[in-house]
Amino acid sequence: MNLLRIALKSARFRRTSLLLTVFSIAISVTLLLGVDKVRKETKTSFLNTVSQTDLIVGARSGPTNLLLYSVFRIGNATNNVTWETYETIAAQDEIAWTVPISLGDSHRGFRVMGTTTDYFDYYRYGDKRPLAFDVGQQFDEVYDTVLGADVASSLGYEVGDEVILSHGLVSADFADHDDKPFTVVGILDRTGTPVDRTVHVSLAGIEAIHIDWQGGGRSGVTLDAEQALKFDLTPTSITAFMVGLENRALTFRVQREVNDYQGEPMSAIIPGATLADFWRTISAVEQVLFVISGFVLVAGLLGMLTTILSTLNERRREIAVLRAIGARAAHVVLLIVLETLLVVVAGCIVGVAMLYGLLAIGRPIVTRRFGVDLAMSWLDPTQLLIMAGVIVGAVLVGLIPGFVAYRRSIQDGLDVRI
Amino acid sequence: MVTEDRPVVSLERVRFRWPGQESDTVAIEELHLNAGEHLFVRGASGSGKTTLLNLLAGVHTPTSGEIRLLGTDLATLSPSQRDRFRADHLGVVFQQFNLLPYLTTLENVTLSCAFSSRKTDRASNSTGVAATARSLLKALNLADDLHTAPVATLSVGQQQRVAVARALIGSPEIVIADEPTSALDADNRDRFLSLLFQEVEAQRCTLIFVSHDPELANRFARSIELAEAGGELERES
C-alpha cells in the first residue's frame, strides 16, 4: 500500500469537512477561470467590432475620434469627406470595395446612418460574420430603413412601421423630419456591436430629408416627400467610408496615400490596430476583476489551510501509528501535502465542471443580452497555467500543515493519549 | 544480523531528561536482552515507561548513554535512518487505538510492510504479504470474515490482536508493547497474553512489555521495575 492510497482513504474517511473545502476551492477556480474567459471573449468581441475592413477613412482627425464616431457612433466628425474625393479613392485599383457612411441624424436616441446596400454585403464583425436579417430585407426605396436589433426591440418596431428621423442628435419637435417618414423594411439580427443601436437608411434618404434644409435649420422652401424624389439625391459629402483592399499587404501604402491626399485633409485608420489601442485604455477594469478573483483564490487556499490545520488534531493518533510503523518525516509531510493536493485537484475538477455548467446555462443569455459569444472551448494555455498555479500554490500551502504535523509527531512520540 | 551471543537490546547508562526539568525521566544503568528473551517492565504512571519505549524505538534520543539495538548504536543514525531502522526491525503495539480507522483489518496488518522492504521480503517469502497477514490473523483467533471488515466494527480485544499481527508481520527482531492489555478485561487479557507469547515465540522475537499491572510480571521470565519519577532501576528476577 503506498502513501497515495493511504492519503486517499484517509481523506475519504474525513470527507465531510474536506468536501466543503473542495467546494470553496472550486468556487475560486470557477471565478478565476470565468473572469478570464469573459475577459478574453469580451476583448475578442470588442476587437472584432469591425472585421475584414482594412481601413476606415474620414476627415482628418485623431484615430480614436474617427474610430469612435465611425464604428461606435460616439461623438461627431469634425468635417466631412466630399463625394468627389470618395469616388476618386473608391475607383483606385487596389480597392476592392468601399462602404460610405453618413452620420448626423438620430431617432429617439439612436444614431441614423446613411449608407449603401454594399454595407449589408461587405460589413463583417466578430469572426468574419456578415450581417443577417432577423426579418425583412435591405432598403430599396429612398424612404426605407433597416433597424439594428436593439433599436427594434427597445422601441418595439416591426417591419412596416413608420419612423420619423430627427435632425442632429437631440430629439426635439422643431427638428424632426416629420414631413418625410421612413418605413421599416428590415430588422437585423443581434450582433453585439454598435450596429444593433443603429438606424440604417440609404444615402439618398439622408439627402432627401435634408433637401429643404440649409445649415442647421429648415430653409424657406418646403418640399414634401414625393417632391424631394424628383431631385438628384446623390450626396455632396459623406462622413467617412470603410475600405476593403484587394490585397491586405497594401494596407499601409493605401493608408499613406489617403493621409497624403492632396485634394483634402483625410485620415485613414486600421480599425483592428486602433481598436487594440483603445482597448488598452479601457482594460483597467478587467485587471481589477482579475485581481479580485485572485484574492478570492487566496481566501480559498487560506480556508483550506485552516481546515487542514484543524484536522491535524484528530489525525495525531493516525500519524503516531504511521510513525510507529516506520513512516519517516518526509512521509508525514508528504501525506499532508498529498491531501491538500487531492483537495485542490478535486476543487479544480469541480470548478471547471461548474464553469462549463454555468457557460452552458449562461451562454444563450449572454449572447442575447450582450452579444458576446462565450464559446464552449477547451481551457486555453493561460487557464491551464492558472490551474497549475493554483495547484502549486496549494502544495506550498500544504507544506505548512505538513511540517506542523511532523513537529507534533516528534513531540508526541509513538503513543498519543488524548 | 544478530549473532546469538550478542545482546539484541543493550542499554548502558541511559539518561533522558525533558528540557527544563529538574530530574531524569528515564535513568537506566544497564540492561541487556538476548534474542528471544521477554522482558516485563513495570512502572506506575509517570515513571517514564512511554519515554523508555520512545527511546527504544528511536523516536527520542537519550540525553546521555548508549542504546544499541542489534549491535547498532542508535545515536550514530540520523533521524530518518532511525525511522528506517524502526520500520525494518521493530514491531510496536500500543495501549489502544492502534489501527487506522479507514483501513480494513487486513490492510492495517500489511501496512507495516509499506515502509519496509525488508519486512515485505520476509513476509512474502512463500505466499505473499496478504496471505502471511491472513495466517497471522488466523493464528491470533481472528476469523476470515473479520479480515475485510472495517476496524471500527471490531471489539477492543480483537483490535489489540490485529495490532499484534501488524507488529509481528515481517518477523521483526524486537517487539515493543506499551500497556496492550490495559483496555481489556481479565479474561480477555489472559487470552491476549497467551496468543501474544505464542506468536512472539514462534517468530523468536525479543519482547519488551511495559505495564503498570504487577500481576502480569509472573508470566515473564525477566522483569524490571521503573522507580517513580525516573529514579534508579530496581531489579527483580
Brief account:
Chain A is of the alpha+beta class. Chain A is built from 14 helices and 16 strands. In chain A, the strands form 4 sheets. In chain A, strands 1, 3, 4, 7, 8, 9, 10, 11, 15 and 16 form a 10-stranded mixed beta sheet that branches.
Topology:
The complex is a heterodimer of chains A (418) and B (237).
Chain A: H1 3-13, H2 15-47, E1 55-59, H3 63-70, E2 81-82, H4 83-90, E3 95-107, E4 110-115, H5 118-122, E5 124-125, E6 129-130, E7 133-136, E8 144-147, H6 149-155, E9 162-163, E10 182-188, E11 198-202, H7 203-209, E12 213-214, E13 217-218, H8 225-228, E14 237-238, E15 240-245, H9 251-259, E16 266-269, H10 271-282, H11 284-314, H12 316-325, H13 329-370, H14 381-412
Parallel strand pairs in A: 4-11, 8-10
Antiparallel strand pairs in A: 1-15, 1-16, 2-14, 3-4, 3-15, 5-6, 7-10, 8-11, 9-10, 12-13
Helix pairs in contact in A: 1-13, 2-11, 2-13, 2-14, 11-14, 12-14, 13-14
Chain B: E1 9-16, E2 26-33, E3 38-42, H1 49-56, E4 64-69, E5 72-73, H2 79-89, E6 90-93, H3 105-110, H4 117-123, H5 129-139, H6 144-147, H7 156-168, E7 174-178, H8 186-202, E8 206-211, E9 222-225, E10 234-235
Parallel strand pairs in B: 3-8, 3-9, 6-7, 7-8
Antiparallel strand pairs in B: 1-2, 1-4, 4-5, 9-10
The CATH architecture of chain B can be given as 3-Layer(aba) Sandwich
- For the record, what is the CATH homologous superfamily label of chain B? P-loop containing nucleotide triphosphate hydrolases
Cα end-to-end separation of chain A = 28 Å
End-to-end C-alpha gap of chain B: 29 Å
List keywords for this structure.
heterodimer, A: 418 residues, alpha+beta, ten-stranded mixed β-sheet, two-stranded antiparallel sheet, 14 helices, 16% strand, elongated, B: 237 residues, alpha/beta, Rossmann fold, six-stranded mixed β-sheet, four-stranded antiparallel β-sheet, 8 helices, 10 strands, 21% strand
